[in-house]
Amino acid sequence: MKSFQEGRGDLFLISLKAGGLGLNLTAADYVIHMDPWWNPAVEDQASDRAHRIGQRHPVTVYRLVTRHTIEEKIVKLHGEKRDLASSLLDGSEISGRVTAEELMQLIRDEQALGSE
Description:
Number of helices: 6
Structural class: mainly alpha
Strand content: 5-15%
Order of helices and strands: HHEHEHHH
Distance between the termini: 34 Å
Largest sheet: 2 strands, parallel
Number of domains: 2
């Protein structure tokens, strides 16, 4: 990691889980997620490691997803989770339109993704 941070490395490969825990990669110009995690906050945390104090360049984040795969379903679930969290945290009218059955379906879908 030190070589990469000092500009002597062109590429730094790291797992999503390790990338979200305590590393600051302020020399990164690009972050590429190749395997989405079921929890979008984990991906966000890993991406944010390149956006720390000391970063002097713009950082571009890519998420590579193959069509018609479980990963595509996970990315769709990310959007649903983000929308739900946003509506609940904002206290907007959208949160009032989410029924108990819709919340249960989200949980069932997430559990089904975890068992595949």
